Structure formats: C-alpha cells, structure tokens
Amino acid sequence: MNRRFSRAIFALLRFCKWYSTVPLGRLIGRLRPTRQIVKLWPEGDIALAAKVALFMHFDGRGIVRGQLLEYMRELKANGRDVVFVSNAGHIRPEALVALQAICACVIIRKNIGYDFGAWRDALEHLRLPRADTEEIIFANDSVFGPLLPLGDTLRRLDYGKADIWGLTESWQVRYHLQSFFLAFGPRAIRAEAFGEFWQSVRPVPVKAYIVKAYEIGVTQAMMQGGLSCAALWGYESLVKLANRAELEKLIDEDESEIGKADPIQITRKLQILRIRDGVARRVALNPTSDLWRQLLISGFPFIKRELLRDNPTKVQDVGDWVEVVRDTLGADPEPIMHDLRGMLKGSAP
Predict the structure, then answer these.
(1) Alpha-carbon dihedral 145, 335, 319, 151, rounded to 10 degrees
(2) What are 229-254's pLDDT values in tens digits?
(3) Alpha helices of the chain — where are they, by DSSP H?
(4) What is the mean pLDDT of residues 22-28?
(5) How far apart are CA 256 and CA 308, in angstroms?
(6) How does DSSP assign 58-77, residue by residue?
C-alpha cells in the first residue's frame, strides 16, 4: 500500500509540474523572438543547391566532433548543400575553419528553442524552400556515426513512395518519425501544412513540450495535412528481426546452463525477453535504444549518443556494442570511444 501511495504521489507531482511549467514555458516562447542568430558565415545572399541539409548542433565548449564533420562530408558528397546551425552561441576558430570547408552556410545562434528553434531560424534566414528546392533534410548531432557510407541510405529516399522520410519510426506517445533525421520531398516542402507547422514553432524552454508539440507533432501535423510519412527502417521489420530464429535460440537454451553462459549472451537473452514481453503487451519500444542491435544488423549507419552515454531506459544488452560495430558492420568503433572519453565522467561505456 505504501509503495502504491508513493507512486501515486510522484505521478501527481509530475502532473502538477507539467501543468505548471508548460503554460509558463509557452508564454515565454511567445514573448521571445524566434530569431536568435548571433553570427553568420558567409554574410549576404547564399546560393544553395536543390537539395539542402539543415544540420543542428550543440556543444557548450564550442567544438565540433570529428564524426559530425564526417557526417556532413557524406551529405555533401551525396549532393546536399549542408547548412550548419549551432545552438552553442560560439564556435572555436579551428572548428569554424573545418566547417567552412564543408558547409554552404554556418549559423551560430543562442541556445534557445532546442532543435526545432534552430531549424526554424535556418528556414527563415535562408528563405527555404526556394523555387528550385527539391528536398530539405533536418538532421542533428544526437547520433554517433555514420558507421557506414551514407550513399545507400540517401538513395533509398523515394519521394514517389512517401512525401516525408525518417530513418526510424516510433509509436511511443503517438506515431511519429524520430526527428534526428527527417527528409522532406518536393510535395511536402510546398504543402500548406509544412509552412503552418514551422510558423507555429516557438522557442519554448520546456523540453517535454518540445518533444510532444514538435518532435511528435511534426509527423502528426504532416499526416493531417494529407502528406504520407515512412521510415527506412520500419518498426515492424525490426521487431520481427528481434524474433528471428538465430536470436530465439538464446531463449531456448536450457535454463540449467544459464550460470555457465557467457555474460554477454545472458544480457542478450534478457533483452530479447524484454522485447518479446513488450511486443506481447503492446508496449511501444524505442527503436534506437531497445532495438539498437537489430538496427545495426540491418545496416543502420548510426547509434544513438544517448544510448551509449546515458542508457536512460536501462537497455540490458548494449555492453557489447563495440563488438557489434566492429564484427557485424566492419566499422571502426574507436571514433565513438574517443568521443565517449570526452563525455563520460566517472563511468565506463
């Protein structure tokens, strides 16, 4: 009874916090100007190709990780003009020099409005979409990678099949494409719903509101506007992959042998059981955390930074990510390890 009472009290406190902070945050968001740009390169009119990638960044130290530079080089090599939009407020001189060799434009702004505030600022400053714009990709720095060349992934963006593509999709809260990578095709960027959504984005200083209203809301708004959305790595296919025969054999092992099993095998078994239980109870899983292994097995070129740095949902089998990256993808895990060494304090990856 005491435990139930405690849970009820905490739930009530979370409810009160939401309904006290969100209205205040929305008010602040309306009062703040949406334009928060403090520095531009180059100044003046900026020529852009028909395909543009708006790459959002934040690092309070003003640095740009080497993997992010490689990510943007891959986008550029595959025909996208890259616009770097940083919420850091400043960029170190050596980072700016590296960015200028890759990007068509660098926008430095105050850390206000999270990703969506940054993307709105870039759209307005660059007057996107323009008459010749065919595609706008919204990407951010919340991933490690690319672990594989991006060309194959980008070539799969077929706007004859869907107007808007994400890499992954989620059913948590409401159906949505996960916003670390969203690609809008020609029909989408000229739709009324696209313009209305971005005009509605305000620099609200409440992350929970941003997630619900914008990260989840953008997919919902586009679908309500008559646009089709799809993910390159669909949720159902990942769940099926988690249940395939070569993974199920871990579950079928004799329980009397579990004490003799490799610890990594045990954690993989526990995670598969967790996935199976979630599917059976129709609990929505987060593909980029719960199904990270299945994503990599199927050629996904990234791994979420939050998963390796914080593991907030306590995914049990992530301990062998190095082996999966190296042995399954044939990629070098050292660049990720290098970045983690600078991020983790008092803990091991």
Answers:
(1) 20
(2) 999 999 999 988 877 644 555 445 44
(3) 2-31, 66-77, 93-100, 114-125, 151-155, 186-189, 192-200, 207-210, 217-224, 235-242, 245-248, 263-280, 287-290, 292-297, 305-309, 321-323, 334-343
(4) 67
(5) 32
(6) --TT----HHHHHHHHHHHH
Angstrom CA distances, 47 to 51, 83, 102, 132, stand at 12, 11, 14, 11
Q: What is the rounded average pLDDT of the residues 143-170?
A: 97
pLDDT at 310: 92
Burial 220-241 (b: 16+ CB within 10 A, else e): ebbbebebebebbbebeebbeb
Cα separation, 141 vs 84, whole angstroms: 11
Output DSSP code: residue 314: -
Element (H, E) at 135: strand 135-140
- pTM equals 0.86
> Which amino acid appears at position 185 of this protein?
G
Q: Look up residue 274 and give its amino acid.
A: R
User: Of the segments 33-37, 175-179, 251-255, which one has the largest average pLDDT value?
Assistant: 175-179
